[in-house]
Every structure is written in C-alpha cells, then in structure tokens.
User: Fold these one by one.
Assistant:
Number 1:
Amino acid sequence: MDSNDSHNQASSSSVAASPGDTQGRTVIAETAVAKVVGVAVRGVAGVHALGSGASRSLGAIREVVGATDLTQGVRVEVGESQVAVDIVFMAEYGYPLQTLANTVRRAVYSAVEELVGRHVIEVNIEITDVFIPTPDAEKPAPRTRLTERLGAAVKAQPATDINYSTEAGE
C-alpha cells in the first residue's frame, strides 16, 4: 500500500474497532466524483451551462423528461488517491474568462478534496462559448399553449353569441 494512503487507514490502537471503523478499501466511482465536480462548477457565478453545444442540446432534452445529467461537460479520472478533471462550459458575458476559469478551478479543488477526500492533480478547463442575453424588448413572446389560445378565442366572441348559444341549449 502507498504511504500516501496511510492517512486513510484506521488507527491500530488497542481500542476495539466497531464494524464501521474496520480497515478496508474504499472505491469512489468516477460518476460520483463527476457529480461533485458538476455541482461545484454550476455553483460558480458566470458559468452559464456545462458541456459543448451538442451535449447541451441533449441535456435540454433530458431536463424536459426530468433526467438532469449533473455530469454533463465533466470528465474525471480517479486514482487511488488523486483525481484529474476536465471541464467544458459556456460562460456568461461580462465575466473575465481567465478569472472565471480560476474561480471554477478553486471550486473544483475545494469540493473534490473536501467531499471526495482525494487530491486534485489538475483541472483542465475549456470555455467553448460566451452566452450573451438578449434585451427583454427583443425576446420573442412565449408561445401560449393551444388550449389557452382556444380558451381566449371563446372569450373573445361577442356576448350576444354566447347568449344565443346558451338559450339554444335550454
């Protein structure tokens, strides 16, 4: 066993160990580490979306069906005591990109080392695009649902038409 992993071993004191304190091997899956990284990156102001254009499109489809992928745009390699991370994301306009990358890097180092208990050896970041919001005046009006449009059409009929149809039904 590596001397680096010695801090993960239970102490060999004369006190009897409970079943939860016994020595053994802990395996942390890449998916678990990738989710920790994904949540940490999404929490950084200035990160608009994770993933490349194609993966963001697939992610939007997943969200519609209620299956959010927290690992989108995140790739990790997990070793016995170390983790390497690759992140792809779209930044929001107005945030200095190098400063944003450094902030994301610090958030990843902190989250992985605190929550996963592994040393991060590198965090590679690729900023693929910058999101520029459109002014509210230029945003297209949200399209109403068909049932709402039909309901509005019925309400728009003159009151006399409604009265005649009501009397005809009696």
Number 2:
Amino acid sequence: MLSAARQPPAASGVLYLHGFNSGSGSPKAALVRQACAWLGLSCATPQLPHRPAAALALAESRLARLGPRPLVVGSSMGGFLATVMAERHNLAAGLINPAVAPARLVANWVGERFDNAYTGERFAIEAAHLEELEALTPDRVMAERYLLLLGTADETLDPAEAFALYRGARTLLHPQGDHGFAALADHLPAILAHGGHRLAPGWSGSQPLGTAGAGIPGDTNDRNHFG
C-alpha cells in the first residue's frame, strides 16, 4: 500500500518514455495516452531512437512542448531516461520497473543485433551505447521526486536494485508482477495523482495490456522488447 500522497501542483502535461527496443505503439504508451485523453491533459509518447543520447535529446525536445512542469513517466530503459530528466529539470516522475544500471546491462549485449517490432528497424548494440549510458547516469537521485512501480517477479531487472537506489520514494510493489507490468491500467490513477491529477479508479479506458487495440499483435516482453 502506498503512503499518503503528497500534494503536488498539477502537472502541465505527461511525457511517457518507452523501454529499450519498444515503441510509441506499445501497450503501456497507449494506456498513458488514453488516460491523458480522459483527463484532457497534454501527452507525448515519442518513438525513441535506440542510441541513449539521441533518445534523451528527442525526449527533451518533446518535454519543452508540455508546459512549465510536466510529469515524466518511463518504463524500464525509459525509466532510466525519465530519471535523468527528472534530476536535470527538477520534475516529478513515475517509474515502472526502471533500469538502474543500464550501462552494466548493455555491456552484455555489445555486438548483438535487435529487431524493433514497432518500427521494423534493425540495429546492433555498439560500445557507444555503453559509453553514452555511463555518461548520462546521475551521480545521485532525489527520492522524493519519484513514484516507483515494481513487479516483484520481474524476470529482466532485479527490483531490489531499484528499491535500493530510490530508497525513500513512494513505492508500489505489485506481487508477482513481471517486467511487462501488465497491471498498469490499475495503477495509472496513482501515477497521475503523483502529477497532481485525479484519474478515478475504474476509468473508462482501463483494459488489460495486450487486448485488442492496446498494442501490436503478438506483443511480448522478452529480452528483445523491454516495454
């Protein structure tokens, strides 16, 4: 159970950042857009490049269009980028199974090729990915900025690492939740509340991830797709 919510000023918009090798057409991105539309709130869910520095540059360009104080939301590698932006711009952020040490993770993939199911792009992980992630990693995080959503059965990232890094953040542990965090629709009210907006439980856009209209056919959360 979450502790009592802080009373933040209402966010001027929402920026959602998808995970590694995912896309703006992912189920989680679609749910965020639905929730923001329900609230009449400006929202951006950009298709991020696979190179971290380019992804951050694009995300920051979209952030600038969302008013003076947007809420940043990110999943997996997008959670890492959301952290970078929250620390740089003094923003509130909601993180879904965030990548804590992405440079260490990517070090195991140098030379490996990936296919993006959303864009059709094929690319290989290079040493430059690792170098960019290392350069972007914040020295520290201010825990009170964050709402942390962690699946206790994440098969890709160790939730204990995120819990330790963001110690003191308001945290929602989803029992047996996997890396895909399929229960996101149920927890979007908490994420939006972290940005000062009220999305009633049972909002009309609520639907399980992977249902018709929520993503692409055959959407998975294996190693080649991180939400």
